[in-house]
Amino acid sequence: MLWTRCSRGGPVRLREATERDIPAILALISEYAGHNLLLARTEASLRECLADFGVAEVEGEVVGCSALSELGPGLGEIRSLAVRADMSNRGIGRAIVEHQMGLAWRREFVEVLALTRRVSLFEKLGFHITRRERFLEKLATDCEACPLSLCCDETAVHWMPPEALAAARELTATDSFRERRSSQRSRNLRPPLPAGVLLG
Question: Which residue has better confidence, 11 or 63?
Fold first, then answer.
């Protein structure tokens, strides 16, 4: 559970969803789904993945929701992000995403994906645009169920927790060095030492 204060509103309580939140979550998602902004959910499908959901409360009322779902080993997705219409433009959506990012770190995800029309919101939180083709297999079921699957206007963005990002950069640097070393050996050249290596 986390209390936070949005930039344009009062205190917001962010917590895990419980069964008593199901009607409110369904109402939020259905409102967005009615405008083809989210995939519709049934009560049964929501119950199956309720453990993935978190909600935002203001004065005891659920005003926003989102899920952090596992798509595969180390890969999470922020989905079903919705904020009640009369509570929009108060920073609640940002607070929800930030909360999910913290959960992703605690769950040891190395990468978090989101498909969104609000790219600027995610970019301000450290997400970067990526190719959705990287995740087609993971997203196949949802994409097939989407009424806009043939003309999707969502953008894929992704974020890596600091430790995962550092590891990825180190791996990329190591792979790059190995490629350079292999190329230099093929030309019978002596490869340079990588940065930080001291001669004994």
Answer: 63
CB 55 within 8 A of CB 86: no
63: CB partners within 8 A, 6+ apart = 12, 56, 57, 83, 84, 87, 92
The model scores a pTM over 0.85: no
Residue 65 dihedral angles phi and psi, to the nearest 5°: -155, 165
Domains of the chain are 2-186 (3.40.630.30)
Rounded to 10 degrees, the C-alpha dihedral 110/116/121/125 comes to: 0
Running DSSP on this structure, what letter comes out for residue 9? Answer: S
Secondary structure of residue 198 in the 3-state scheme: coil
Q: What does the alpha-carbon distance between residue 48 and residue 50 come to, in Å, rounded to a whole number?
A: 6
pLDDT in tens, 5-29: 665 667 899 999 999 999 999 999 9
End-to-end CA distance of the chain: 52
